[in-house]
TrEMBL record:
InterPro entries: RNA_pol_sigma-70-like (IPR039425), RNA_pol_sigma-70_dom (IPR014284), RNA_pol_sigma70_r2 (IPR007627), RNA_pol_sigma70_r4_t2 (IPR013249), RNA_pol_sigma_r2 (IPR013325), RNA_pol_sigma_r3/r4-like (IPR013324), WH-like_DNA-bd_sf (IPR036388). PANTHER family: RNA POLYMERASE ECF-TYPE SIGMA FACTO, RNA POLYMERASE SIGMA FACTOR. Residues 109-160 form the RNA polymerase sigma factor 70 region 4 type domain. One of its GO terms (molecular function) is sigma factor activity. Belongs to the sigma-70 factor family. ECF subfamily. This is RNA polymerase, sigma-24 subunit, ECF subfamily. Keywords: Sigma factor, Transcription, Transcription regulation. The keyword Zinc does not apply. It comes from the Bacteria. Gene3D superfamilies: 1.10.1740.10, Winged helix-like DNA-binding domain superfamily/Winged helix DNA-binding domain. Residues 22-88 form the RNA polymerase sigma-70 region domain. GO terms for biological process: DNA-templated transcription initiation. Pfam families: Sigma70_r2, Sigma70_r4_2.
Amino acid sequence: MDSIKEVKKARKGNAAAFERLIIEHQVMMYRVAKTILPKDEDCADAIQETILKAYEKLPTLREPAYFKTWLMRILMNESYQILRQRKKIVVLEEWGEQSSDDVGYEKIEIMELLETLPEEQCQLLKLFYIEGFSIEDLASIYKVPENTIKTRLRRAREKMRTIMTKEKEEKTTWKNGKTK
């Protein structure tokens, strides 16, 4: 499917073309929302709001080639909005609940490590390494130059490496029975 032609059709009011574009990007939308929001219901809400806003604002999109990054930026904004609203609410049933996802220990450790980073660095690493966004796409989403994205990725990797080294040293110290 030629996305640029579909975007042009959708901008002219072709709802079927817009629907095809959304279907083409639905998996990516879920993955991006999931990197920000822990619950599937919140992801669905963010995606639904994104689709509505994108449909309403599609005529304002200047360059059809940037539809994907434009759509993902809307999704990220909606996801952060939901996250801000959810941070104010604490549900008692979920407070002590453990995750029952059947994932490997390595994946859990990596996700926990990512969560120790500042939010922007965590998000950037997830989008680049897990979701496969290019540096060019990330620069468009964050509205910064590509070199800024490269620098932020390097700093995030360095910070993660520092945290991993520190944890490894602490485990070694603990195993050897030494205390600090």
